[in-house]
């Protein structure tokens, strides 16, 4: 794959003339004020100022975070980020999202899927960005390939991870036995691609094949690097990759595997003295502990993450960590502790996004805040309150981040379960049917488990309006082997 003109190892930002044109005769400060007003119109808070406008126009901000994206698309309806002069999100999703500079077409890549003897070896394939699929035909091809569970998936959407037949040891030998810029960029590309596919499709179809780039990343660490800056990037990339693979295990119900991967990431963070990676590893560990029925560990892990993150200047990260802590308190049945953590989470969230927000947090917006709060009230048995927050989460996600198909399905499944337990079976069935309609795109054991629980709760109400249809359609789902 040829190097991207949008980024390089020694980036030379390209001015964003389209965005400058939109500002017109207004000063940067005046335009920033217009953006802040537009944000308030849709319930967002952005700390936009003249400096931010200058960075955008200079090309230093290649793609805005999701809060700014929602504001810009509200201000300029009918336009895309590309129309506004920004790079596609797929070019920057992931930690650093660095591309190779001047690398030949045969530069080092890391296979997300390893070749199998029966895998396809025929026609040439091309990269397909899951966020940029526009036609129904392309979407159907990707969905069929994904659901097939074969190496066709790699051909359909994972072209950048070529050299699938190459072993990790051979990859480290390409540059004389030491990892360099190309190898580190390949690790970062693997992180980005996994996150993109998980956002749209969920974890089940990805986890079994995601071990290949992770093994390669740690083989590169063992081989060593020639520069300290490269070593720092490689440690960060390998740690983020371990967390990404751990999340795939977590979301597909493989809790022991997830715990191992998160521990690996935490060890990498400690060895590299990387507080950002440490906070991320503890954050995911807290979430896993909650899901595994260890709420006190969830509280401790989230507090450890907060200590690691306290100097990172990211209120949104601290907000997410407060929500992780709230989930632990809810699991312990401590309503007061949960409410205190939720109050802290909202206050920190309201400070708005920051340039220091980690790139892995692009999923964390108002929808996720509402969804995680819904889970807290559900754990405390307050089904009506949980349903209100879950409904908000699903609505916001559908309107603002439609590309996060998995999260829309998750929030709607939470809503269905809360409604069922709140004694509103007809509304629960309607929500459940919406989730079933998304399962041709999403593979997540978490969501399927939630639907199965909802179906059991609704079984005594099978004669209620719509419930029978939901139960019949749910019963017809293919069962995981």
TrEMBL record:
Protein's organism: Streptomyces durmitorensis
SUPFAM superfamilies: TPR-like
Stretch list, region Disordered: 1-23, 100-129
InterPro entries in the record: TPR-like_helical_dom_sf
Compositionally skewed regions (Low complexity) per UniProt: 1-11
Protein name: Tetratricopeptide repeat protein
């Amino acid at each position: 794959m040829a190097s991207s003109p949008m980024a390089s190892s020694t980036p030379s930002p390209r001015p964003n003339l389209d965005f400058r044109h939109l500002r017109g005769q207004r000063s940067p400060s005046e335009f920033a004020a217009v953006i802040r007003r537009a944000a308030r119109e849709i319930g967002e808070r952005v700390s936009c100022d003249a400096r931010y406008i200058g960075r955008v126009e200079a090309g230093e901000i290649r793609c805005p975070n999701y809060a700014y994206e929602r504001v810009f698309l509200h201000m300029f309806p009918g336009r895309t980020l590309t129309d506004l002069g920004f790079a596609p999100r797929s070019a920057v999703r992931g930690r650093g999202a660095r591309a190779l500079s001047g690398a030949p077409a045969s530069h080092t890549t890391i296979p997300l899927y390893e070749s199998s003897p029966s895998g396809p070896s025929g026609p040439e394939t091309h990269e397909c960005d899951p966020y940029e699929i526009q036609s129904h035909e392309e979407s159907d091809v990707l969905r069929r390939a994904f659901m097939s569970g074969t190496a066709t998936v790699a051909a359909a959407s994972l072209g950048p991870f070529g050299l699938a037949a190459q072993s990790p040891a051979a990859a480290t030998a390409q540059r004389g036995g030491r990892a360099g810029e190309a190898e580190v960029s390949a690790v970062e590309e693997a992180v980005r691609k996994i996150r993109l596919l998980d956002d749209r499709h969920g974890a089940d179809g990805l986890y079994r094949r995601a071990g290949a780039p992770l093994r390669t990343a740690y083989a590169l660490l063992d081989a060593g690097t020639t520069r300290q800056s490269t070593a720092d990037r490689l440690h960060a990339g390998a740690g983020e990759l371990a967390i990404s693979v751990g999340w795939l295990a977590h979301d597909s119900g493989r809790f022991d595997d997830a715990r191992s991967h998160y521990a690996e990431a935490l060890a990498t963070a400690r060895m590299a003295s990387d507080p950002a990676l440490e906070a991320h590893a503890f954050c995911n560990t807290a979430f896993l502990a909650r899901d595994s029925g260890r709420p006190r560990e969830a509280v401790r892990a989230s507090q450890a993450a907060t200590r690691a993150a306290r100097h990172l200047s990211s209120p949104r990260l601290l907000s997410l960590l407060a929500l992780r802590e709230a989930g632990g308190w809810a699991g312990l049945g401590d309503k007061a502790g949960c409410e205190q953590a939720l109050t802290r989470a909202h206050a920190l969230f309201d400070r708005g996004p920051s340039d220091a927000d980690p790139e892995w947090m692009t999923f964390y917006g108002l929808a996720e805040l509402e969804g995680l709060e819904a889970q807290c009230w559900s754990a405390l048995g307050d089904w009506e309150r949980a349903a209100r927050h879950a409904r908000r989460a699903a609505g916001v996600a559908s309107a603002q981040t439609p590309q996060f198909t998995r999260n829309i399905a998750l929030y709607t499944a939470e809503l269905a379960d809360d409604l069922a337990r709140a004694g509103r079976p007809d509304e629960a069935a309607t929500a459940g049917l919406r989730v079933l309609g998304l399962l041709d795109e999403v593979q997540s054991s978490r969501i399927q488990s939630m639907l199965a629980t909802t179906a059991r709760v609704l079984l005594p109400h099978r004669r209620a309006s719509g419930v029978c249809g939901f139960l019949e359609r749910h019963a017809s789902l293919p069962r995981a082997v």
